[in-house]
Amino acid sequence: MKKILAVLGILLVLFIGYVWFFYFRGKKNTHEGPKPVPMAAGKHSGAFNQNIDSALAAYYNMIEGFVNWDTTTVNKNAAALKNSLENFRLDELQNDTAKDAQSLYATSLDFLANAKNETVNIAQNPLLDKKREALNSLTDNLRNLFLVVHYDGQKIYYQESPTAFNDAYPGYWLSPKEEIRNPYFGTQHPKYKDSMVGDGNSKGVIVKDTGK
Fold first, then answer.
1. Distance CA 48, CA 64 (A)
2. In 10 A of CB 153, how many CB atoms?
3. Taking the CB of residue 93, how many other CB atoms lie within 10 A of it?
4. Are 177 and 154 a contacting pair, CB within 8 Å?
């Protein structure tokens, strides 16, 4: 009987170890994780898309500021982006017909709040390196927000700089064009100058009417 209990105890420990390993391996948070599930609603209102278009305009101008190492432009457009995010009309998402619409609405509010916080970090931190770290987080939250709400406006390219942070981890940004203009290296890098401004690749797109 003791031998049977010992064997069962060993099997139980192995089973717990197996579950523990695969659970925490699956919890790793990366930009390559599953896409958020989009809302089921069709086209958004003109006001909703105008909110996003206004935010994207400020975001893209801010990206150019990073490309050109222009702190004034970065700060100005980070503030403009925050203002646009403050005016987002997310309430209309509650009219979605999906059974999990309220949960997705709450998720979108989280992404929006995180994005607004990162615009403040970008505007207030005096160091460009720290601003770029906030840009990476901002981009992640904006991308997830657009996917969750099933944005159906202009095409947005999701782009990556694999070596943005000294090879430790990649940096991401959004762009209206497939052409790479890397905001993490830019045109005035102290080591690479403008040789790395075209370094990077497009990871995918948020496409009109598909939410991809």
1. 25
2. 18
3. 23
4. no
Q: Identity (one letter) of the amino acid at 111? A: F
Q: Please spell the DSSP secondary structure of 99-145, one letter per residue.
A: TTHHHHHHHHHHHHHHHHHHHHHHHH---HHHHHHHHHHHHHHHHHH
pLDDT tier, 28 (very low <50, low <70, confident <90, very high otherwise)? very low
Q: What is the DSSP letter of 90?
A: G
Cβ pair 77, 59 in contact under 8 A: yes
Distance CA 62, CA 71 (A): 9
Residue at 161: amino acid letter:
S
Closest C-alpha to 131, from 197, 63, 177: 63
The one-letter amino acid at 178: E
Residues 6+ apart with CB under 8 A from 109: 90
Q: Which of 93, 67, 87 is nearest to 146 (CA)?
A: 93
CB 69 within 8 A of CB 128: yes
* Residue 31 · residue 140 · CB < 8 Å: yes
Bridge partners (DSSP) listed for residue 202: 159
- The pLDDT assigned to 36 comes to 52
pLDDT, tens only, 73-86: 999 999 999 999 99
Q: What whole-number distance in Å separates Cα of residue 142 and Cα of residue 162?
A: 19
> pTM (2 decimals)?
0.79
Q: What is the distance between the alpha carbons of residues 110 and 190, in angstroms, rounded to a whole number?
A: 36
- Rounded Cα distance between 94 and 62, Å, is 31
The three-state (H, E, C) secondary structure of 184-197, written as one string: CCCCCECCCECCCC
